[in-house]
Design brief:
The protein is of the alpha+beta class. The chain has a domain of about 130 residues: SH3 type barrels. About 15% of the residues lie in helices and about 35% in strands. The strands form two sheets. Strands 1, 2, 6, 7, 8, 9, 10 and 11 form an eight-stranded antiparallel sheet that branches. A three-stranded antiparallel sheet has the order 4-3-5, with no helix packed on it. Strand 8 and strand 9 form a beta hairpin.
Length: about 180
Amino acid sequence: MTEDQAGSEKIYQGDVFKDQIVITIPPNIQILREIENREFKSFNLEELSDAFEHKEGELTVVHAVKTNIIILSQTCDIERREFISIAPVFPLIKIESEKKKESIRNHKFNYRFYIAESDVLSESYAELSLINSIKKEILILDKRICSLSDYSRQWLQYTLNRYFCRPFISKEKEYIKPDDKIS
């Protein structure tokens, strides 16, 4: 399922990196404003009549976790663009329900991508509902754990297609998978 890309200077779709920051915006947005001498105060969005009117934007409080991530952007886009799309990768063992684990393994969720266990990574899944964009320059190549095989990368592309688009469905009303032959 995975290949070793240690030492490679190129970033590929399907590369998995360790110890990266993934953020989510909490439901009650807190805006930070400097009140004096680099001292900041937190405000609720409702407290500020001029929130998000500044050209520079606003400093906000976000929820951040350090976790493994997978690169979702196409390899050719990674080479040409400043920002790339990533998703957090979590160990499958964190899912308590055996039924849910089996559904992830069998690609039943369109928002989770299964990653089989390898020598360098425990059985895991990418949580596509938490996609982030990051500047590619913040990735430290030494933190790359592995890369998906070509076959697994096709499954990732298939899963991303199911997540963002209408799925490819055959005449028999079944999802067309990367292994399927289309006549």
